[in-house]
Design a protein that fits this description.
about 70 residues, about 55% strand, globular
């Protein structure tokens, strides 16, 4: 129910995380920086700081962020 992937172009990298369930989901990705900045989100505002380790996604939440 959780899909997450990275998109890279040159030295730029963004993470896309999608929760398709009606439950809170937790993304554990130890290789990511401990925090990031939201670019686009269904439940979060652009520019918002987000804790990434772990990233908790609310039901049906999607977020695109820069780690």
């Amino acid at each position: 129910g959780l899909l997450a992937y990275a998109r890279t172009s040159g030295d730029q990298r963004v993470i896309v995380a999608l929760n398709f369930t009606s439950d809170v989901q937790e993304l554990t990705a130890p290789q990511l920086a401990p925090s990031g900045t939201v670019l686009l989100g269904s439940h979060r505002s652009a520019g918002e700081h987000v804790d990434v380790r772990p990233l908790r996604l609310r039901p049906l939440e999607s977020v695109v962020f820069v780690p």
